[in-house]
Amino acid sequence: MSRQVILTRREVFSSSHRLYSDELSEEENKKIYGKCVNNHGHNYVLEVSVKGVVDPKLGMFMNITELKEIMRIYVMDKLDHRNLEGVPELKSIVTTTENLSIFIWDQLYPHLKQHLYEVKILETENNFVIYRGE
Ligand SMILES: Nc1nc2c(c(=O)[nH]1)N=C([C@H](O)[C@H](O)COP(=O)(O)OP(=O)(O)OP(=O)(O)O)CN2
Ligand SMILES: [Zn+2]
Q: Which of 21, 110, 7 is closest to 53 using CA atoms?
């Protein structure tokens, strides 16, 4: 019997950002995003989940070390200790947690393919977003 499991790796990255849309006026930005138009920082908690069938011989379908390395190269090295507005791929988007989760999915998908199940990001301990590639 094949057993499908979901495996999750958690990382924390620290980034600064502000919520600001180039498509809005200064006044509209202030009205919509409030205090978040000012530069501020978060210790984002990122949880990436992969799904697969356990190989009975190995007791796993993916080594966490491999997942950790993929997350390091394609997410952590790009976002940790950065100002998100300075990350080239994020230049033209508003760095909401929603957009970050989609960005991270797109970074990881080519390397995890059908195994990638969920990207979850906690911006604060109260606010988080889940993206499953839909
Ligand atoms: N839909 C979204 N709304 C907001 C986002 C977002 O990513 N998506 N982000 C922010 C800000 O970036 C902001 O930093 C949130 O901080 P804050 O309001 O201080 O966070 P908390 O809700 O955890 O703090 P409280 O103490 O509970 O107010 C805003 N909106
Ligand atoms: Zn913020």
A: 7
